[in-house]
């Protein structure tokens, strides 16, 4: 789920898929034709054509395509996610507990994702009847930096802190099914994605939480040493967070350009 190519690529492709269901009529001219191979709605190999279209757009991921209002994918920014790792950190790693109250919180904010444009598309399928778009893609690596903001009671000790957090992952595999609907804006047809079902896997990862214990650098070092040594257990804790992050990334990238690329510009006039 997490900036230009992935947004345009996925949006264009998805737009195309659901447009089929809406039976939108293709325009005579298309700005997209300068950058990608357009598809015909009647093409029996529509999924293959859409995959090629996405790969064409992918070539412009870092620079973007201003003419199509497609911004750069580098870097991609997510404003906030729930930092679920803290909910199970105490019990899983330290054998303790994290007490929660109405004032408890654990968030990561202003997440900057590097290498988000360096993905490869392996498969793309469209179910016109269900308005579903399935994509199988992978990232060689993602480097994420942001700021955590936590207010918890851990081991009967209040922890209220903010600071930098770093998350790196390699060989990330993403399989996602997106659901959307078409809307009309004047003479144009746009696609809006409102839900995503996503599964993520990765070969290796690392997490570094800096300066959580403001007054005790020894505890900070011990925490990050444990994060390194308990990867197997932490993987279970981080997976929901990674999937939430990937889901928000994919949805956000697509929806950011929905108003910039009408469905009618994706297909060849027949």
TrEMBL record:
Entry annotated with the keyword Magnesium: no
Q: Which InterPro entries match?
A: Haemolymph_juvenile_hormone-bd, To_sf
Q: Which domain of life is it from?
A: Eukaryota
* Keywords carried by this UniProt record: Signal
Extract the SMART domains matched here.
JHBP
Entry's Gene Ontology cellular component terms:
extracellular space
Leader sequence range is 1-24
Pfam family membership, one: JHBP
Give a yes or no for keyword Signal in this entry.
yes
Provide the protein name: Circadian clock-controlled protein-like
């Amino acid at each position: 789920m997490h900036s230009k190519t992935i947004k345009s690529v996925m949006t264009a492709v998805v737009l195309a898929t659901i447009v089929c269901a809406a039976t939108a009529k293709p325009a005579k001219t298309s700005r997209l034709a300068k950058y990608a191979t357009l598809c015909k709605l009647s093409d029996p190999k529509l999924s293959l054509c859409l995959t090629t279209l996405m790969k064409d757009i992918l070539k412009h991921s870092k620079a973007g395509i201003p003419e199509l209002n497609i911004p750069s994918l580098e870097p991609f920014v997510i404003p906030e996610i729930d930092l679920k790792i803290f909910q199970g950190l105490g019990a899983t790693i330290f054998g303790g507990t994290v007490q929660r109250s109405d004032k408890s919180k654990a968030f990561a904010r202003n997440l900057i994702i590097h290498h988000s444009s360096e993905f490869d598309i392996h498969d793309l399928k469209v179910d016109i009847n269900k308005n579903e778009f399935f994509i199988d893609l992978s990232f060689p690596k993602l480097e994420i930096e942001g700021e955590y903001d936590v207010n918890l009671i851990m081991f009967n000790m209040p922890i209220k802190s903010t600071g930098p957090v770093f998350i790196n992952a390699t060989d990330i595999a993403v399989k996602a099914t997106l659901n959307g609907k078409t809307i009309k804006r004047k003479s144009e047809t746009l696609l809006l994605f409102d839900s995503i079902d996503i599964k993520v896997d990765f070969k290796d990862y690392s997490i570094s939480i800096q300066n959580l214990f403001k007054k005790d650098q020894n505890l900070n070092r011990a925490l990050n040493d444990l994060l390194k040594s308990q990867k197997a257990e932490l993987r279970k804790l981080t997976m929901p967070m990674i999937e939430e992050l990937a889901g928000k990334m994919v949805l956000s990238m697509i929806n950011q350009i929905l108003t910039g690329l009408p469905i009618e510009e994706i297909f060849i006039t027949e």
